[in-house]
Amino acid sequence: xxxxxxxxxxxxxxxxxxxxxxxxxxxxxxLFFDGGNPQKTLNQLRExxxxxxxxxxxxxxxxxxxxxxxxxxxxTSRRRADNLGSEALPANLAVLSFCLLQGRSRIRLTxxxxxxxxxxxAPPGRFHCLERGARATRVYxxxxxxxxxxxxxxxxxxxxxxxxxxxxxxxxxxxxHELYSHAILxxxxxxxxxxxxxxxxxxxxxxxxxxxxxIHVESVAGLANLEEALRDLAQENQAA
Length: 240
Fold this sequence. Notes:
The chain has helices at 8-20, 25-32, 39-47, 68-74, 88-100, 111-118, 151-166, 172-176, 189-200, 226-239; strands at 51-54, 63-66, 106-108, 127-132, 137-143, 180-186, 214-219. With 240 residues, the chain is α/β, with parallel strands linked by helices.
């Protein structure tokens, strides 16, 4: 293991892994190397014991993740270096894809950043992401249902979260102006279409969920189609 503090670029990579819990060479190249090859920096971080690799993505593909030593070097919670299990891995991958593989300006928010935006109590939920658009900034509560979760259960859980956030006075203007949204991430267009149809038909009394909150359904890269999304990103970098 090499010694010494991480340099500025290495620290940005470590902070990126702490924020998203995992990442890939193509994404690191896009964010910090203008599409160039980041392998030298990634190798140095591995040699220093600050990052590790995690397999489980098909073929020889592996993700880069923060190590306990990397979390310590950042002064962040050691939980950011916890192993991503069978449930946490696809959920965190979906959020990474939503922010960095969809061609939109989005960033996953930390708990501290969420509290800075909304105060205490911050809106409940495991994941929140911020999107900066041409007209406004929008915050998404991000829900990543598993492949086996029924559409009716997804709608019910979304309804419950909407009811929770409407109880928070600080969120009322955000909800009213559709600046706080509920994003539901799935990994194929057919499931997205079925879910959109169920949400549109979620209230027979004219008070469906979309009259209570902005709801956005998006198909993002998952374990099955990750390689294609990363290949497309690499091609975009080469063309730039």
